[in-house]
Design goal:
- This protein has helices at 11-27, 87-103, 137-152, 222-235, 253-266, 269-273, 334-340, 363-370, 418-423; strands at residues 32-48, 51-69, 76-82, 158-177, 182-200, 203-213, 245-251, 294-296, 319-323, 326-327, 354-356, 373-380, 390-401, 404-417, 425-428, 433-435, 438-440, 443-451.
- By secondary structure, it is an alpha+beta fold.
- The strands form 3 sheets. Strands 3-2-1-4-5-6 form a 6-stranded antiparallel β-sheet.
- Strand 1 and strand 2 (51-69) form a beta hairpin.
- Helix 1 (11-27) packs across helix 2 (87-103) and helix 3 packs parallel to helix 4.
C-alpha cells in the first residue's frame, strides 16, 4: 500500500497566512488587499512501450497578494507572490506589492470586488470536490501498462506509443480580502490518458483518448480506454485528401468542445472591453441557431469546474449564457465588468461547468443527420480571428456517405466564419464528453468550405 500523503499545512494555517498578509497590507497603508494561499501535491507517471518514461512527484505552494492604494476611481494596484511561507517572506511580498502599487498609474477600474457580490452563507455550500487517491508509483506504472498493453494487443499495425499517463493531483487554498471574506477548500483531479501510433505500408497515424474526474472510480477502465485509443488510431490508416468542396461538417464531441471554448474567449471581458471580439454589443441578439442553449452550472457536486465563488470571492450562480440561440450573458470579473459598465458574472479566472444542451441523437444518429459530408475528429493550427470571427483550421477525420463512414480523411482545411457557424448549427449530439470546463456532444454545422486537393 502506498504511504499516505497529506497536505503540509492545515486549513487553519493557510487562513493564518492569509490573515498575516492582510494585516501587513494594512500596516503598509494599503486601502484594500486580496490574498490567496495555496498548496498542492500529486504524482504523474508515464509509461512508454511498457517501460516507465517519467515519474514526477510534485509538491507546490504559493502565496499571492494584491494591494490597492486609494479608492476607485483613483486606485493604484500592485501584485507580488512568494513560495516561502515564513513570516518575513510574507511581509516582504506585501511590501513588494505596495512598492509596485505606489509607482503604478491610477486605474479607474482597479479595486476589489464590491462587498455585496461576495459569496457568503448559503453560497458556500459543500460541493464534494475532494476525493484523494493514495496512488503509489508501482500501482501507477501497472495501470499505465494495462492501458498501453490493451492498445498494442489490438493489432500488429500499432507499432508505437507516445505513452500512457496516470496522474493523481490534490490541492487546497484559502482566498481572503480586506472586506472580511475568507474561505477555501481542498479539491482533487485525477486522469488517465493514452496516445498510440498505427502504421501500415510505411504510413503512420496517431490518435489518443483520455479520462479525467475528481473520483478515481469514475475514471475510464484502463483496458477499455487503451483499446478505444488503439481503435481510433487504426481507423485513421489509409487516410487521403478529398477535393475542395462545400459540405456539412460534423465536429466530434472533443473537437466541438473547442468551438465552445472559442465562444467563451469571444464572450470574455478582456476581449470585449478591448474591442477584440466579434461579440461586442451582441447581448440580447441571436448568435446561435434557435434551440441552442448553453448553461453555466457551477454548483454541481464533484464536477471538475464546480466552485461557490470565482477567483475574487464573487458568488457564482447557475445561469443560461445562451438561451434558444440568444446571448444572455458574458463572462466577466470585477475589472472587466467595470470597464464595460456592467456587473461581474462571477467569472474572474474562467467559466464554471458549461453545459451545451443536446438537441440531437447519439453519434450514429448524428452521422445519419450529416448524411454526406466531413466528420472532423481532430484539428490543428490556430487560424481563429476573434475580431472578425474568421475560422480556418487544419483537420482530419472521415468522409461520410449515406450516413456511414466511407473512408478516413487527412490534410484538409475547414473554413468559415464563427458567426455563421454558430447560427448554422443543425443539431448537438447526445454523445456528451467532458473536456475541462465543458460538457458537450458532437456539433453538426450546415455548411463549411473544405479545402483539399
Amino acid at each position: 500500500m502506498p504511504k499516505e500523503i497529506r497536505f503540509t499545512n492545515s486549513p487553519a494555517q493557510l487562513r493564518g497566512l492569509a490573515q498575516s498578509a492582510l494585516d501587513a497590507a494594512r500596516a503598509a497603508g494599503a486601502s484594500a488587499c486580496e490574498c490567496e494561499v495555496s498548496e498542492g501535491f500529486g504524482l504523474s507517471v508515464t509509461v512508454r512501450m511498457g517501460e516507465p518514461e517519467t515519474i514526477e512527484h510534485n509538491r507546490d505552494k504559493g502565496l499571492g497578494v494584491t494591494v490597492y492604494f486609494g479608492e476607485r476611481p483613483h486606485a493604484r494596484r500592485g501584485n507580488a507572490s512568494t513560495s516561502d511561507f515564513s513570516g518575513a517572506a510574507v511581509k516582504s511580498a506585501v511590501e513588494a506589492a505596495a512598492a509596485i502599487a505606489r509607482k503604478t498609474a491610477v486605474d479607474d477600474c482597479a479595486g476589489p470586488p464590491e462587498p455585496a457580490t461576495l459569496a457568503q452563507g448559503a453560497g458556500l455550500e459543500e460541493l464534494d470536490l475532494f476525493h484523494p487517491w493514495r496512488l503509489g508509483t508501482e500501482e501507477a506504472i501497472r495501470i499505465a501498462r494495462r492501458t498501453e498493453r490493451a492498445a498494442l494487443a489490438l493489432s500488429r499495425k500499432i507499432r508505437n506509443s507516445e505513452g500512457a499517463t496516470v496522474s493523481a493531483q490534490h490541492s487546497q487554498f484559502v482566498l481572503a480580502n480586506s472586506a472580511g471574506f475568507m474561505h477555501g477548500f481542498p479539491s482533487s483531479r485525477h486522469s488517465l490518458a493514452l496516445s498510440v501510433i498505427a502504421e501500415d505500408k510505411g504510413l503512420m497515424q496517431r490518435d489518443d483518448w483520455y479520462s479525467a474526474s475528481r473520483l478515481v472510480r469514475e475514471l475510464a477502465d484502463p483496458e477499455a480506454l487503451g483499446e478505444y485509443a488503439g481503435r481510433r488510431a487504426l481507423a485513421r490508416l489509409g487516410a487521403r485528401k478529398i477535393p475542395t468542396c462545400q459540405a456539412p461538417v460534423l465536429f466530434e464531441a472533443p473537437v466541438a468542445a473547442g468551438l465552445v471554448g472559442t465562444f467563451v474567449a469571444a464572450a470574455s471581458g478582456g476581449n470585449l472591453y478591448r474591442n477584440s471580439s466579434f461579440l461586442v454589443g451582441a447581448l440580447g441578439t441571436e448568435v446561435f441557431a434557435r434551440g441552442v442553449t448553453l448553461e453555466e452550472r457551477p454548483h454541481e457536486p464533484r464536477w471538475l469546474a464546480s466552485t461557490p465563488y470565482d477567483d475574487e470571492g464573487v458568488a457564482t450562480r447557475t445561469r443560461a449564457v445562451v438561451r434558444d440561440g440568444v446571448l444572455e450573458g458574458y463572462f466577466l470579473g470585477s475589472y472587466s465588468a467595470r470597464k464595460l459598465g456592467m456587473q461581474s458574472t462571477g467569472n474572474a479566472g474562467g467559466n464554471h461547468n458549461l453545459v451545451l444542451a443536446p438537441t440531437g441523437p447519439d453519434l450514429p444518429g448524428m452521422l445519419r443527420k450529416l448524411h454526406r459530408g466531413l466528420f472532423v475528429t481532430d484539428t490543428l493550427g490556430h487560424g481563429i480571428n476573434l475580431v472578425t470571427g474568421d475560422y480556418s483550421r487544419g483537420a482530419a477525420g472521415y468522409w461520410v456517405e449515406n450516413g456511414e463512414i466511407a473512408f478516413p480523411v487527412e490534410e484538409v482545411t475547414v473554413a468559415g466564419n464563427l458567426k455563421n457557424m454558430y447560427r448554422g448549427i443543425v443539431a448537438i449530439g447526445s454523445d456528451v464528453v467532458v473536456r475541462g470546463t465543458q460538457r458537450c456532444g458532437s456539433i453538426l454545422i450546415d455548411t463549411m468550405t473544405i479545402a483539399g486537393s
